[in-house]
Structures are given as C-alpha cells and as structure tokens.
Amino acid sequence: MSTQEELALARVALTWLAEPGTRSVHGLVDEFGPVGALDLLLDGGAPQQALRESVAARSRAGDARVVAAEALHRADRLGVRVVIPGDDEWPGTVEQLRTLCLTDARRRVDVETAPPLCFWVRGSWPLAEALDRSVAVVGSRAATAYGTHIATDLGYGLADRDWTVVSGGAFGIDAAAHRGALHAGGLTVAVLACGVDRAYPMGNAALFDRIADTGLLVSEWPPGAEPLRPRFLIRNRVIAAGTRGTVLVEAAARSGATQTTRRAIALGRRAMVVPGPVTSAMSVGAHELLREHPEARLVTGLAHVLEEVGRIGELAPVPRGPERPTDLLDDDARSIVEAMPRRGRIGVDALAARAGLAVRTVLRKLPLLEELALVVRREDGYAMVTPSRRSTRPGPAASPGGPMGGDAPLPA
Amino acid sequence: MSTQEELALARVALTWLAEPGTRSVHGLVDEFGPVGALDLLLDGGAPQQALRESVAARSRAGDARVVAAEALHRADRLGVRVVIPGDDEWPGTVEQLRTLCLTDARRRVDVETAPPLCFWVRGSWPLAEALDRSVAVVGSRAATAYGTHIATDLGYGLADRDWTVVSGGAFGIDAAAHRGALHAGGLTVAVLACGVDRAYPMGNAALFDRIADTGLLVSEWPPGAEPLRPRFLIRNRVIAAGTRGTVLVEAAARSGATQTTRRAIALGRRAMVVPGPVTSAMSVGAHELLREHPEARLVTGLAHVLEEVGRIGELAPVPRGPERPTDLLDDDARSIVEAMPRRGRIGVDALAARAGLAVRTVLRKLPLLEELALVVRREDGYAMVTPSRRSTRPGPAASPGGPMGGDAPLPA
After folding, report:
1. What is the superkingdom listed in this entry's lineage (chains A, B) (predicted)?
2. Measured between CB atoms, which of B256, B258, B403 is closest to A407?
3. What is the nearest CA distance from A7 to chain B, expressed in angstroms?
4. Are the beta carbons of B349 and A60 separated by less than 8 Å?
5. B33 — alpha (psi -120 to 50), left (phi > 0) or beta?
6. Which of A23, A63, A249, A407 to mutate to test the interface with B (most CBs of B within 10 A)?
7. A83: helix, coil or strand?
8. Is the alpha carbon torsion for A271, A272, A277, A280 positive or negative?
9. Do domains A82-309 and A325-405 have the same CATH topology?
10. DSSP run (H or E) holding A189
C-alpha cells in the first residue's frame, strides 16, 4: 500500500509524461494505480503505441520520477501544495469527466478529456470546499465594455450570495469576473493553464496575487510550467466540471469560452449565456450557442443565474411593466376607460355606445372608476383624469411598456 | 343569394356593432351568413346576452345599415376599397384565426380573436398577393438607436429579397421596418388600428402616404375610425396571422409587440426574436420571450430570418473565425507548432520532447510545416515563422477568435 506521498509523486510524474486528460493514462491508473501505471509506462509497457512513443520522447528530456520529485520540492518552497484523489480537499465533481463525451469530437483536446490526475493549489481554502458552491463565468479576452460590465456585475453578485466565482484568469471577461468577486469580498478561483507561480498573462499579476490571498490559484501543471496553447483548452474541461454551471458572457465565433460552455452542457451542468447586441462580434459565439443548444439557457443577470444553479425555489422575478390603476379593472371597466374621450366630457349614453356596453353596466362601473380617480364626474357628464392630475404613477397612455404595448396612442 | 355588395354592407355593419374578433358574431356569420347574422342581431335575437347588450348600446348611436352604407360611400370617395371573403384578394391566411387559442387567455382581447369580417384597403396591390410572401417586423415605439438600426436593416434586406414587410405603422421599430422596405424599393404593408385615411400617429403621416403609393394601408375599421387603445391589440392578431413569421426587434416587458409574437407562436407561424444588450429595458420583453417560448427562435440578422421563413435550403451560414493555416493540420503537426518556442531555435529532439511525440513523427511532419511556412529550418535547428513574416492572414496567436479561444497566449 503506497503512501499519499508516493501516490502524489506518481501522479505528478504521469502528468509530466503525458498531458492531463489523456484517457489511456487514466485507464492504466484505474487498472494498476498511479505507482503501477508509472512503472509500466517507464518500462515502455504501455499498450498504446502513441502513449509509448510519447513517454519515450518525454523520457529523453529527463527521468520522470526525478522531475516529479523536484517539482514537489519546488512547490513546497513556493507554498504550493499538490492535491490528489484521497485527499480531503479533492473535488469529486471532476471525476465526472470520465463520462464526458463530446459530439463529433475529432481533435485531441475534445477526446482526451479524462479527469485530472492531480491539482497544484496556491491559497489557503480547501479546494473541494471552495468549489462546492461555485459558478464559472467565462468569456472572451477581447471583451467589450458591455461584457466587462456584465461579468463584473455577475462576479460581484454571485460572490455576494456566497457563490464561488471560477474563471480562467485571462484578460477581459475572466479578469472582470474575478475582480467582481474580489470587490464583494467573496471567494474566487482561477484555474490556470500554467504553473500557479507564473503570472500569465503578465498584466494580471497583481490580480493573481489578490486571488491567491483570499481565494485559490489552481492548475494541473506544476509550478514553472509554461502556458502552452493547447493547455488552455485542456484546462477548460476542469472549469466546466468543477462548477455547478457556466455562464458565457461574451464570445467570438469559435472561441474557447464557447468550448467550455459546450463541455458544461455535455456534463449536464447548467449552461447559461448572456446575449448581447447582434451588431457585436463579441456576442456572435454566445448567440450561436443559444441557437444550437436548447440546453443553453439565456440569462440576463444574477437573478436568472441563481435560478439556474440555486436551490429549487430561488426563482427569478418575471419582469413587469409599471403597475397601472387599470391593471385592477375587469374588461367592462377597462372598456369604459378606453372609450373615454381624451379631452372634454361625455354623457353616459354616448359613453355606453362607444364602449359597446349596456348603459346600466356603465352606470354600475363608473363609481369604481371615480374611486380610482380614473374619471371625474362633471355636471354635464364624465371626463378623463389626466395622469399628472391623478398621481405620480404612469397613466395608461403614458407608459410605453403598457398593456397596449409599444403602439398605444399617445395623449394628443 | 346576396351580392358581394350586400355581403360587404352586412360585414361592415357587423364590425360596427361589435369590435372585430368577437367570436359570437363570427359564429353567427358562419351559421346564418353575414346578412342573416346582421338581421338577427338588429332584431335583438343574439343568443349571448353580452352581445345583445352591445348591439343595443351601439344601435342607440345609429342604424347599423345606414352607418355601413355611409362608410362604404365615404371610402369610395377616398379611394379606399373594402375586401371581404369571396373577393380574389381576400387573404385566406387570416381564417386560421378561427383556431387561435392563447394559453391562459383571460382578457377580452386574448379571447375575442376571430378572423376579420372585412378589410379596408388603401393602395393598388391586391391584398392577398401582397401578404403571400410576407414577414412581420414589430417592436417597441420607444425604440433605441440599436433597435431602429436593426429594424431598418431587416426591412431593407427582406424587401430586397422580395419579401413584403408588414408592421403596424407605429413610431420606433414599426416605422423603421417600413422605411427600410421603402428604401429597398420593396413592398410594405401597414396594418392600422384606425381608418386608413387617418394618419395616426401624426408624425408618420408622410410615411403613410409613401406606403400607400407603393404598398398598402390596411385596417379592419372604416375610414374615419378612431385609434381607440384596445384596437391596437385587436389588430395585432392580423399582423401575426397574415404573415409567414414575426420578427420581434425590441420590446419592453409586457409590450404589445411581444403579444403579437405570442399570437404568431400560437398560430404556428415562425416567431423570431432579436436579442439585445441585457442592460437595455427595450430588450427585456425580447429576452423574456426567448426564455419562456422554446418555439421562439433567436435571430441575429437577415440570414437567420430567411432561414426561418424561406424555402428549405435557405440555410444561414454558421459564423466562423478567420481561416488559419493550422486549421489544416492534424493533431501531431499542431502539437509540433504549439511546442515551438516563440523565439529562438529548437533542435528536433528537444522539440519532440516538448511535443510529446516520437522523433521520427516530428521529422515526418516538419517538411509540411516548412511547406506551410509555419516553421523555418536553420543550420542549428528550427524556428517559428512570425505571422507578419508569413502572410497577411492572422496567425495562430494573433486572432482572439482562434481555436485556442479567448485565452491563447499573446505573442510575447
């Protein structure tokens, strides 16, 4: 029986021999355990030729066990810890990546989506606890002012409701979401595609330090690891699997953020998309996702996001136009109000004729309308009360969002 | 057997006795024909008490037959014609309103949605022909610059593809859609809630004249009829039923435009919604519709609208990021490019180690990469070719919409 230290070293070595997510490696770990799998690979015993070649190639650059030992030692000096299955803080949710199957997956990054073998963590929160109640907010690096505003708001609002905000630490939407959460004094986690000791991108160095102080920096790659381009896509599966849902704020066509959202959908996580102006290239990816995936839910703000990821019962309020006195009226009463001339007086008979109602119906309803200060009685008939004279509440004709819709007549 | 003239007079009289859409009246017309139904009503023989009262009330204001005759005479003087079922230009599509059933319909306007008894038409096009290939573009009166821009574009694009643009002649989105169609020299139809001789709203008077010159002004109410507020909602069922689909561009919560779209959905017509910034009150109704009705399709422009209403095969192109040379590569070749150091040279063995590939695989792929001018051979190894030196096409690292998504490393 190996110790956690031996298991950690083996898992770190395996991650160095083949990029995280490689299914053949994960299969061998399932079969022989990390230590057995490592021995097998280093003895050139991998059943898959591609894997044998990859291991041989990496081995020419060094001894996997030595490299792993050095990485663990270096991490220790940097205050970075390694987390593996069996540790209390291992997030079980990422194990669901075993079952992840992306439709028409052809590229390696869409096929090799096995669970992580280990996480390198910087920050004091236990990883599993930090991710327990978490939402991912992702989007384009080249975000617009609109997208940045939305992402900051969501980050703030989610953190304010004690949700952990997870993102990728990139420029644009990612950074805005992290910052929003920090402003709320909440918990935020950046899942990186390089070592947690490396500030990539450089411009976010200060942000990463603030995240590490109050939240977590997490990576599958050891301290010092470079942000090679494929790693960003490999990393995205962790953001999708580690959270209850992913909110896509802005994304260009074919962007990596849409790809994280597709992984969330494939994993049965909540996939949420914030629409934007159709004139904005930065919303093309978001709109395409909404058109292609019925599972992706259009969300316009915090309330909708909480409705998706929150407990049952946290329902977002349906937006309503301004309350109007006429909302209280039945059809007959409303017909009378609508038949009232906008200026001058009208007799009860003429009013009944215009409203298409019996005179006695009109006589029965008028007192209520006077009560509501919608009409006023004059010696020679009835007159309409103009909104201004009635109250500060917008009157029937004054409100564009009224029940008559965009095209109700304006007061002449 | 009555003549079309007698039938027209009866239908006009019936429309005056009870607002268009009243199901009880439509039922009597089905049973006894327009003339018989009119006689029955005027003899106070309506089975429904509400209808009897309404008829009695209206009759106090005048003799229905006389009023109808005067209306027809006046229309004739104004160059306005009445169109009824049996006429060649009667649009059969509106008859589907018989089957319209709105969910939780409580208000009169949601219940009384029977087909029109007649149309008053101003303009030379035959009504049925004008509506045969038509799309409704509707939205809020209080439109933003964004919404107005989109509606004008759609109106122009649809008219340019020989689609008739139908709307309500209101300020904002309606007017923008009509204007777009006129700019394209296309056909546009305004379905009004008052007499086709009345310019309502006043500000659109010139627009109405232009529409009448080249398109059509249509109404269920006779010349001179006032735009009473409920009539706008009654009218909306015609816009939904008379067109192949309805595009909602901007709408506040509870706006009349969303109500037209709901009618389109209930009628099995294409319902299309243009999203907007979630920060805009004028898009709240649009986003709610998309959230509540899976049948409502998110559209971002003309191509999507044509895909919905057009013949099968008119499919909108899926937006793509810029083409990249690396798009052509298989996984191994891509891994090699991605493992190339951004600056300086690298030997084949080191490159193989970084890429996690066998040396011979790397040697097999390098010629292709040289061919594509992605890498260049130097005496002491291989170097990356920077996009600028390669071509004008955006290179792997240069494009935010790249396959690595929003967060690929920037060239240092």
Report:
1. Bacteria
2. B256
3. 23
4. yes
5. left
6. A407
7. strand
8. negative
9. no
10. strand A188-192
Global ipTM: 0.78
List of chain B residues whose C-beta atoms are within 8 Å of the C-beta of residue A351: none
Question: At residue A116, what is the residue type?
Answer: P
If you ran DSSP here, which 8-state letter would residue A316 be given?
P
Contacts of B209 (CB under 8 A, 6+ apart): none
Contact B403, B327 (CB under 8 A): yes
Q: How far is CA B207 from CA A183, A291, B203, B254, in A?
A: 51, 35, 8, 27
Write phi, then psi, for A372 (nearest 5 degrees).
-80, 5
Q: What is the nearest CA distance from A126 to chain B, expressed in angstroms?
A: 26
Test mutation, B24, B330, B407, chain A, max A CBs within 10 A: B407
- A405 and B256 within 8 Å at the Cβ level: the answer is yes
Q: Which pair of structure tokens corresponds to residue B126?
A: 């035959």
What phi and psi values does residue B17 have, to the nearest 5 degrees? -70, -35
Per-residue pLDDT of chain A (412 residues), as tens digits, is 789 999 999 999 999 999 999 999 999 999 999 999 999 999 999 999 999 999 999 999 999 999 999 999 999 999 999 999 999 999 999 999 999 998 878 888 899 999 999 999 999 999 999 999 999 999 999 999 999 999 999 999 999 999 999 999 999 999 999 999 999 999 999 999 999 999 899 999 999 999 999 999 999 999 999 999 899 999 999 999 999 999 999 999 988 899 999 999 999 999 999 999 999 999 999 999 999 999 999 999 999 999 999 864 456 666 655 556 666 788 888 888 888 887 888 998 888 888 888 888 898 888 888 888 888 888 888 988 865 555 443 333 333 333 333 333 333 3
**Mind telling me how many Å the CA of A85 is from chain B's nearest CA?**
25
Helices (H) and strands (E) in chain B, counts: 17, 12
CATH 1.10.10.10 fits A325-405, yes or no: yes
Cα distance between residue B381 and residue B386, in whole Å: 16
Write out chain B residues lying below 8 Å of A228, CB-based.
Answer: 338-339, 354
> What stretches of B320-379 adopt beta strand conformation (E)?
345-346, 375-378
- Whether residues A256 and B407 touch (CB distance < 8 A) is answered with yes
From CA A214, how far away is CA A164, in angstroms rounded?
11
Residue A187's SS3 state is coil
Q: Mark yes or no for CB contact A54/B357 under 8 Å.
A: yes
Peptide linkage before B116 cis (omega within 30 of 0): no
Half-sphere exposure of B332 (CA within 13 A, CB side): 16
Backbone angles phi, psi at A83, to 5 degrees: -120, 130
All residues of chain A having their beta carbon less than 8 Å from the beta carbon of residue B172 are 406
Could B258 and A405 be called an inter-chain contact, meaning their C-beta atoms sit closer than 8 Å?
yes
Least Cα separation, residue A133 to chain B (angstroms): 25
CA distance B328 to B191: 53
How far apart CA B379 and CA B120 sit, in angstroms, is: 85
**Total residue length of chain B:** 412
Residue with tokens 């643009």: B165
Judge contact between B356 and A20, C-beta under 8 A. Answer: no
Its CATH architecture, for the domain A82-309, is 3-Layer(aba) Sandwich (3.40)
Residue B106's CB: how many other CB atoms inside 10 A?
A: 10
Neighbours of B117 (CB within 10 A): 25
The answer to whether the pTM exceeds 0.90 is no
The residues spanned by each domain of chain A are 1-78, 82-309, 325-405
Q: How many residues does chain A have?
A: 412
Two structure tokens written together for A362: 């009109």
